[in-house]
Design goal:
The protein is α/β, with parallel strands linked by helices. It folds into three domains: about 5-85, no CATH class; about 100-190, no CATH class; about 205-284, no CATH class. The protein contains six helices and nine strands, in the order ααααβαβββββαβββ. Strand 8 and strand 9 form a beta hairpin. The longest helix is centred in the first third of the chain and has 23 residues, at about 45-65. It is elongated and about 75 Å long. The two termini are about 30 Å apart. The relative contact order is 0.11.
């Protein structure tokens, strides 16, 4: 949350919402405001949008309970007065921080079902497609594709990230969406591959959770690595420094293993270079 005078105005605007709204959406609203501020969005614009949203929430509450007519009218009046001080330098209001939907994966095996359930409960036209991936990417969001008109930046207000399966790297574990999201979007989620199935996406083969995690062959010469690889029951292909494609031809023994990726659960492509890569600790 911005820490200057504009930030204090935004905090004041959020406080105008009724307690019931804060209990359900307060944390998401503050998180979204911080994300939008990092992207350079004016705190004044967000505050004005929140003032308007708070007024709508109060009026809705008044209509429901029939007890808050005076309070709601006073808030609308106060909102109008507060708005005068920010109208001069205000840009058009963005999608409001008032309504944020948090679609988060908490169980990797159930990732697709969890996301689909959230989207359905909010009547979003968002499909979920599962793609076979290498082990550390299972249960993570791989990509999103927005089709046609949508709200927000490609329909997404923010991304929830965390460590990938196996404990290394950073993977997307959820999305923050505007509650009034419109349009059609497709979310691609990683799943475990079936026997013999090629990966649609693969992480670095030496990082935790992947096929060669903890292997001693990284940085060694091809001549030294081949005997070790022969005991792993994996089909090995090679990509020599500068080549675009993997080849079944084993390169000269003096090349060094510099990296690689898995093609499937039983096949890998190793990248080799004229010299050993610098030691950087466990791959992430």
């Amino acid at each position: 949350m911005p820490g200057n005078g504009q930030g204090r105005l935004l905090v004041l605007a959020l406080r105008c919402y009724p307690p019931r709204w804060h209990a359900r959406h307060g944390d998401e609203a503050r998180e979204l405001a911080a994300l939008l501020a990092q992207d350079g969005l004016s705190a004044r614009s967000m505050a004005w949008d929140c003032f308007k949203g708070a007024a709508r929430e109060r009026v809705t509450e008044m209509k429901t309970t029939r007890r808050l007519r005076t309070g709601a009218a006073a808030l609308v009046a106060a909102t109008s007065l507060a708005a005068v001080s920010v109208l001069v330098s205000m840009s058009p209001a963005p999608a409001g921080a008032a309504g944020v939907v948090r679609a988060e994966i908490t169980s990797r095996p159930e990732a697709a079902g969890q996301l689909a359930a959230v989207f359905k409960s909010h009547h979003f036209d968002i499909g979920v497609e599962q793609l076979p991936v290498s082990p550390s990417l299972v249960g993570s969001i791989l990509a999103t594709k927005t089709i046609g008109h949508s709200t927000g930046n490609d329909g997404i207000l923010g991304r929830i990230t965390g460590t990938c399966a196996g404990g290394a790297g950073v993977c997307t574990q959820g999305l923050l969406l505007a509650s009034h999201f419109s349009g059609h979007m497709l979310v691609m989620v990683g799943r475990g591959a079936k026997p013999g199935e090629k990966y649609a996406e693969s992480a670095e083969v030496f990082r935790p959770g992947e096929l060669l995690a903890g292997s001693s062959v990284l940085g060694r010469t091809v001549a030294a690595a081949v005997p070790v690889l022969g005991h792993l029951d994996l089909g090995v292909m090679w990509k020599v420094d500068g080549d675009k494609h993997c080849s079944a031809i084993t390169p000269d023994g003096w090349y060094h293993l510099a990296g690689g990726f898995a093609i499937s659960a039983v096949s890998i492509c190793l990248e080799v270079a004229p010299s050993a890569p610098p030691a950087t600790g466990p791959r992430g």
